[in-house]
Design brief:
The structure is a single chain. The chain has 182 residues and is mostly beta strands. The protein has one domain: Immunoglobulin-like (Sandwich), CATH 2.60.40.3500. Helix content is 8%, strand content 35%. A 5-stranded antiparallel sheet has the order 1-4-7-9-8, with no helix packed on it. Strands 2-3-11-10 form a 4-stranded antiparallel sheet, with no helix packed on it. A two-stranded antiparallel ribbon has the order 5-6. A hairpin with a 2-residue loop joins strand 10 and strand 11. This is AMIN-like domain-containing protein. Pfam families: AMIN-like. It comes from Streptomyces griseorubiginosus.
Length: 182
């Protein structure tokens, strides 16, 4: 009788799944990278009378792209800074056309209609942007300050190659994402 009880208990475990090895979860899918960003100029007229000023520039790495964030406190999505973001053959200080060397296989010029808040963000013409270290980044290589001229601030972003990018306006921020691949 004891043997039948053991067999019955084992059969019950098998039929109810109790004590069974749990199913292995499917491996997580890699993040699907965005397509269709392109490499042509991205621009929006925005406000020429921005109350906001650039207070910081930050960068981060994501699965599919590197990201640069320009902090513009007071900017809204309803009244953003005007911007022009485009690949350029060389990066220059606008009034003098003096070349500013930017490392990388390609250069993106980021121009936006907001001044630099010198009391919070200290940067000089042709200097690397403070606080940015692109070691280990897949796409970003360098970032230089091109000055503020005729109502617009200019930044040169050196990237590995001509790659797709997008520009996003968020409250208090202008964001530039550059894809790792096509």
């Amino acid at each position: 009788m004891k043997a039948w009880a053991t067999v019955l208990a084992a059969l019950t475990l098998v039929l109810t799944g109790a004590g069974a090895t749990p199913a292995v979860a499917a491996a997580p899918q890699a993040e699907a990278c965005q397509k269709g960003w392109g490499s042509i100029t991205k621009a929006a007229p925005g406000s020429l009378a921005m109350a906001a000023s650039l207070t910081d520039v930050r960068a981060g790495q994501h699965t599919c792209y590197d990201r640069m964030v320009l902090d513009l406190p007071g900017m809204t999505t309803a009244d953003p800074a005007g911007y022009w973001v485009q690949y350029v053959p060389g990066f220059n200080h606008p009034p003098s056309q003096t070349g500013i060397p930017v490392a990388g296989g390609a250069i993106i010029e980021i121009e936006f209609t907001a001044p630099v808040d010198d009391s919070r963000y200290h940067v000089r013409l042709a200097d690397p942007l403070p606080g940015l270290d692109f070691r280990g980044y897949r796409t970003f290589r360098d970032a230089k300050f091109g000055g503020h001229y005729d109502g617009a601030t200019h930044i040169g972003l050196g990237v590995r190659a001509t790659l797709p990018f997008r520009v996003t306006v968020l409250p208090d921020r202008l964001v530039v994402d550059v894809a790792h691949t096509w």
